[in-house]
Each structure stands twice: as structure tokens, then as C-alpha cells.
Amino acid sequence: MRDHGMELERKRGGEDALSLSYEEWRERMEAWGEPRFRADQICNWMHVRKVFDYHEMSNLSKSLRERLSGSMLMPLPVLIREQKSKDGTRKYLWQMADGARVESVLLNHGGHTTACVSSQVGCPLSCVFCATGTLGFGRNLTPGEILGQFLMMERRRLDGGAEQGINNIVFMGMGEPLLNAGNVFKGIRMLNHPKMRNLGARHITISTAGVVPGILDLADFEVPLRLSVSLHAPNDGLRTKLMPINRQYSLSRLVEALRVYRNRTGERITIEYALIDGLNDDPQLAYEMAALLDGLEPYINLIPFNPIPMKPELRRSPEAKVKAFCAALAELRIEFEVRRERGADIMAACGQLAGTLRCT
Ligand code: SAH
Questions:
Q1: Is 211 in the pocket of ligand 1 (CB under 6 A)?
Q2: 224 vs 296: CA distance, rounded Å
């Protein structure tokens, strides 16, 4: 896979400042003969105060500000469009330095704010119910592009007079985060770092369609974040029909990896299941799911299916069927909730993101 960060550097003659970890900033400052606390100052400007213009970093020497301006690029996502839903959810369309476009979503719930960010331009997985999957795959986002979505949304929020920044981040936007694990993990380490954004691990969630090696990496990841798995079907036949990735990582391998993750981290896993009319909403499947996940003590998130224009034949399960599915889960004593739909009027709900690709 081509490394977009390095390519950017070659093309534009500078390094991507947004993708540098705290440790890398310390190394750069040392190499430049600067005191190492300069790294702390720069990281604070960018990640806490959201100041990205070196000339405004007033506690740095003038010569350092100039050297930074001449050699460290700040490829922030450029806002192309912001849409606001009736329920207050906001959707942002960003353009990256090479013209690629992705979307992010900002949700409010009970005084907390969650940023839903993209990890790839498009997505290679082609899940049949997901709008992003119909775009195909553009490229991986860099750590800076992933973080940039969060920082720009937080800056807009604070500039707009909000008292608090963003509380949570979920990797539930466009793309499969565990197929871009290197950049996603680096971005998460940076967000979590006390000298950078210092966002608590409990406030970070990765959602995966079931990339087994990535789940195993997460079992040993030093940031104890939360894991969500998009299941949508409890047997291989149905799941392969809905999610082609199941051919590569079958349910037995997926569940085995989830057991390793659960044993190693002690963390509870959230299972996402979108109820699609006549496809996967038979209550019998709830029993099958319980047997499949036996011993894992999962938390089930039932998502009302969000219609997408490219698949008009797929419809949300009617209320009565949702109730029957819930009743089966309750009888099985499996903990679940039906997720409230957010932002559907601006196509910002789960699976509806499809910011145009445009990679050059
Ligand atoms: N690739 C990752 C990240 C995307 S998260 C993953 O698959 O988990 C987006 C969540 O919304 C996933 O659980 C996905 O399965 C779900 N989803 C996709 N399309 C949907 C739709 N049309 N309605 C409801 N949920 C959908």
C-alpha cells in the first residue's frame, strides 16, 4: 500500500507535522539543537489549543517558528461542507491535501459529544448494506488526517462557544480501521498521550467488520480502548452474503479472536447488529447468536437499519420484528440496547457515509 504521508513529504518538500508523535517531536527538537521541552510546547499548541499556525505559537523563538514554517507541513483537512441534522448531529465533508474526501460526524447525547471519524478513503470491504462499501477503496488515511478530523471538529466547537471539547471518539466513519491499523493505532496513541490531547482510553472505540489479525493486535495494544464488532449475522452462510470479509475470516476464527481479546484485556465487547427486514431479523437468529457468543458476555447493540439510496430493496425491520428479536435476546439474558438513530435526515447515520472519493 502506498504511504500517503511519505508521498506528501516528497511532493511538497516537508514533513507532516500532524502525523508526528510526541516522541518524534522530541527527537526533531533534539536534532535541531532545541531544548526538548519545545516538543511539549508545540504539542500543546496543536493538540490542546488547536493552533496550527507556527507564527501564532508565541512562546517559541522567532527562529524556531520560521524553521518550523519552512519544513513542517500542516496538512489539515479542509472543510467542504457542514450539515446539521434536526437532532443536532453534524456531518462534515473534508478534503485532504491530495483531493481525497471523507466524512466525519459529531453527535451530542446527554451533554456529551462524540466524534465519529473515518480511517480510510472509501472502503475495500463491500458489506452489502453499507453506503461506504459501494465507493470502493481509495487509500488509507494518515495518522494526521485521522487526528485532523477530530481536532478540526473540536476547534469549530470551541470557537462556536462550547465550554467543553469533544468527549469521545469512535472509529465508525468511513473505512475499516483494522485494515489501516498502523496509522489508526498511531493516531490513537497520540490522542491518548498526556502531552497531546490526553483523551482517556475509555473514551476511544474501534469498530471492526472482523479483521482477525487486527483484533489480536488490539488484545495486546497498550491503550485499553473499547472494541465493537459488526456481526450482523450469526452463521457463515448469511454473514458471507452480507459481509464478504467473512470468506476471509470466518465466524469461528472471529469468535476465537474475540475470546483471546476478552481473556487478555478483561474488556467487554460490543456486538453491532443492524436489523434488516427479512434478511437477518428472524428471532431464531438471536438464539443462534447467543450460542455463537456463549461465554463472551457481549453487549449487543441493535442498530435500526438505515436505508441507503444505492440499495432501495433493503428495508428496516418493522417494529414488531424488532420487538420479537429483542424478546428473544431478553429471554436469553443477553444484554442489549436498540441504538437510537441519529442524523439520518442528512445521511449521517451508521453506514450512510459516502463522501465522494476523488483520489489523485
Ligand atoms: N468498518 C468498520 C467501521 C464502520 S462502523 C465496521 O464495519 O465496523 C459503521 C457501523 O455501521 C458498522 O457496525 C456497520 O456494520 C454499520 N452499518 C453499515 N451500514 C449500515 C446501515 N445501512 N444501517 C445501519 N448500520 C449500518
A1: no
A2: 18
Q: Which has the higher per-residue pLDDT, 357 or 317? A: 317
What's the burial of 147, exposed, middle or buried (CB within 10 Å: 0-12/13-18/19+)?
buried
Cα diameter, the chain: 69
Backbone angles phi, psi at 235, to 5 degrees: -135, 155
Hey, which of 272, 308, 340, 347 would you mutate to test ligand 1's pocket, going by the most ligand atoms within 8 Å of its Cβ? 272
Whether residue 103 lies in the annotated active site: yes
pLDDT of 7 above 70: no
Residue 309 phi, psi (nearest 5): -60, -30
What's the pLDDT band for 9 if we cut at 50, 70, 90? low
Share of the chain above pLDDT 90, in %: 86
Pocket of ligand 1 contains residue 281 by CB under 6 Å? no
Ramachandran region of residue 92, left (φ > 0), alpha (ψ -120 to 50) or beta? beta
Span from the CA of 230 to the centroid of ligand 1 (angstroms): 7
Contacts of 168 (CB under 8 A, 6+ apart): 112, 113, 114, 115, 203, 204, 205
Rounded Cα distance, 321 and 92, in Å: 34
Mean pLDDT for the stretch of residues 165-190? 98
Catalytic residue among 103, 145, 176, 272: 103
- Ordered structural domains, the chain, with CATH: 4-73 (1.10.150.530), 78-346 (3.20.20.70)
Q: Is 145 in the pocket of ligand 1 (CB under 6 A)?
A: no
Which residue's alpha carbon is at the smallest distance from atom 20 of ligand 1?
351
Rounded (10°) CA dihedral 168, 122, 246, 321: 60
Q: 3-class SS at 32?
A: coil
Torsion of CA 336, 338, 343, 348, to 10 degrees: 50
Q: Is 103 in the pocket of ligand 1 (CB under 6 A)?
A: no
Which residue minimizes the CA distance to atom 26 of ligand 1? 351
What is the CA(263)–ligand 1 centre distance, in A?
Answer: 26
Count each helix (H run) and each strand (E run) in the chain, helices first.
Answer: 12, 14
Mean pLDDT value across residues 141-163: 96
